[in-house]
Design brief:
Strand content: 35-45%
Order of helices and strands: HEEEEEEEEHHHH
Shape: rod-shaped
Radius of gyration: 31 Å
Structural class: mainly beta
Oligomer: single chain
Number of domains: 2
Distance between the termini: 85 Å
Helix content: 10-25%
CATH architecture of the largest domain: Beta Barrel
């Protein structure tokens, strides 16, 4: 069987995730993320070797477009030199690092199922250098470097409170991380894939899918987790936007008929107690067996 190219698999995965995605807002919510990293270290050595790592991130959405948080992680950076040079000293170098950074995310399309973003931050990298996993140089002491990450990414929300996250970035480091200082800072390209779990709900969301945002329901006093707060057969959103009835009162005109019954069953006006103007309320006529839409239906 002919092998399917990797990029086609990635494209198929992206299409399937987008097809099953759902809109979600991040403002006013905490998120916890977990993922894996792959990197390529750019320094004064001439070989780029892929290293692996992982990360944990927690962040808070301060607005529709800006989130701020902290990222912790573990990175293994690898590099080599061929042919060996006198000042390079080693033909292979391995760096084990534990980064911590304060990050800001700038959401370009907030509230969309597939939401691209930019990110940037500042932090520290604690690391040890070695030529194998056990031989440290010049010793096993921790060293430190500043860390300036930035890049671009995209979140795909597949269900409420959950997203897949993919980003590509570059991290600027101190020029001495590989023990050579030739002017420009060192750094590495970092590719990350992970998941984010969102806690709570956003005021910009519509948790009960009744057509009103959570923030609007808080203003009205309706229940943002119940689409029909007064249980009159009409959603809160329909009462506010379409019928202009009271979403907190099942009988807006006090004629003893629920608003939903008046609209869908009796075809009467839920804002007018006596729809046909015959002096009898719609409720009186219904319970008496007469027609609330015909003023001549009384004997």
């Amino acid at each position: 069987m002919k092998k399917v190219p990797g990029y086609i698999c990635i494209l198929a995965l992206a299409v399937s995730l987008h097809a099953s995605s759902t809109a979600q807002h991040t403002v006013g919510r905490w998120a916890v993320g977990l993922g894996a990293n792959a990197n390529a270290w750019f320094n004064d050595y001439n070989q780029r070797i892929v290293g692996l790592g992982g990360h944990i991130v927690t962040r808070y959405g301060f607005s529709r477009r800006i989130s701020v948080g902290v990222e912790f992680g573990y990175e293994v950076l690898k590099t080599g030199q061929d042919p060996l040079k006198a000042d390079a000293r080693y033909d292979y170098l391995r760096l084990e690092g534990t980064p911590i950074s304060l990050l800001a995310w700038f959401h370009l399309l907030p509230g969309k199922p597939a939401a691209p973003y930019l990110f940037a931050g500042l932090g520290l990298l604690r690391y040890k250098r070695s030529i194998t996993s056990e031989v440290y140089i010049p010793d096993a002491r921790d060293r430190g470097s500043f860390r300036v990450p930035f890049g671009v990414g995209i979140e795909t929300f597949t269900q409420k409170g959950f997203s897949f996250d993919f980003n590509v970035g570059y991290v600027v480091l101190n020029d001495a991380t590989e023990m050579l200082e030739r002017g420009l800072p060192d750094g590495y390209v970092n590719v990350k894939f992970g998941i984010n779990v969102y806690l709570g709900s956003s005021d910009d969301e519509d948790d009960d899918e009744d057509g009103l945002t959570n923030a609007r329901e808080k203003e009205l006093g309706t229940n943002p987790t119940n689409p029909d707060t007064d249980e009159d057969g009409l959603s809160d959103g329909a009462e506010v936007r379409k019928y202009h009835t009271d979403p907190l009162n099942a009988d807006s005109d006090f004629d003893r008929l629920k608003d939903g019954e008046e609209i869908f069953k009796y075809m009467t006006d839920p804002l007018k107690a006596d729809t046909d103007g015959d002096g009898f309320s719609d409720g009186e006529e219904v319970f008496a067996g007469t027609d609330p839409l015909n003023p001549k239906s009384h004997p």
